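URGENT: need a sanity check before tomorrow's submission.

F., can you look over the Methylamine utilization protein MauG record below? I want to be sure the sequence and structure line up before it goes out.
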Amino acid sequence: MGEAIMNADLSTVLGYGGAVVLFATTALVLLVRADLAPAAGLGAVLDGGGKWFLGAALGAGVIAFSLKLVIILTLSSFPEQTIAPLVPPPATAMVSAESPDAFAPSADAAPGHVWKALPPVAPSPPDNPATPAKVSLGQRLFHDPILSIDRTVSCASCHDLGLGAGTDRRATAIGVTHVPGRRNAPTVWNAAFQARLFWDGRAGSLEEQAMGPPLNPDEMGMPSAQAIEERIGADASYREAFAQAFGDDRPVSMRRVVQALAAFERSLITADSPYDRFVSGDAEALGPGQQRGMWLFQAVGCVMCHSGANFSGASLIGPRNPYAPLLASRSPLARSHGLGADKGRAGEAAADGIWRIPSLRNVALTAPYFHNGAVGDLSEAVRVMATTQLGAVISNDPGLRRVPRWSAAEERFRVVDRLVLSEQDIADIVSFLNALTSDSLSRGAARIP
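Structure tokens as predicted:
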């Protein structure tokens, strides 16, 4: 029945097209015979069959043009019957990770993506160049609880550089009040490459970020910048260290405190992961499953947000795309982890939160995940991101990739392609994310009891 309707529709179009061609040809022939030839003084030349020859030659152009219009009209009116059968469906075959060439899907969400290794040195702002004395001072301040009201909490309390891979391994940070905060403590490793800091991205530099925790009543609880300056300035060894770092004997200032902390944090770079070795030319650095996971990470679109050498659109290097909505409203899995409650930059009335895109460097060591620290397993975190950000279906059934959906506006079904990730896909992506782990941090993590 559908074929009969299609043929009837095509016949109607071709019928109208034929009438148009016949009318145009007749009009042109008459015009040439009655007007063009006499006006050009060709009456004698075109007597008899000559006029008909001229009319036929010009009419052929009209016919060819009309046929092209008919073809274009037919293709645009009936794409499902004319064009769609000629277009191969996207690759949906389930593949094994045993072979490094067994990559799927064949479609690529980011065909222009270029993989880069992390630079070994982070850039410093012109007003705060790094020096050994400044970095040393910042390291001392980072580990000293002198910056907290009761001298019990240091920067390192929430950002353990060794066993915690720059985090405290808690769901949310705990400060001087001993009450869990609202958000998870991000790692400080490679934070030097980030253009936006904190989960909501409210700080635009390491210096600005370092100003926050000491004065936050729930974190380190100091009452004012002046109180910090007076406490540190009362220590003769600190006065000497500040003079060495900044080249004079002026009083300790909060600006110089955060500059020293930022200078130290810019030294916290991990460019020694298997991934870095792989993109730098070591073809054996990643196994077949990790390479397939790397391809999937690009092909399904993860790199659209987690881009550049630091795997974050909020970085100083690579494409700049610092914020993204976390579409928890469309993922029951995300909502089951409470990821829709805190809206970040979006405000409480928003349907979904907006967050700074975090780096995925050393992500295998920095659980628990997300702003609320609600997800403790990296595989689960990948499932959450796949269902929220990519709209993916997690299933081992490849038949779910193409589904019919009724279009009321078009009064017909349309076949919709959707992303389906298998458990093997998830495992390979996780395997690739493990390859972003620093060798030196990995050796430290192995000592965790």
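My own read: The mean pLDDT is 84. The radius of gyration is 33 Å. If you see anything odd, call me.
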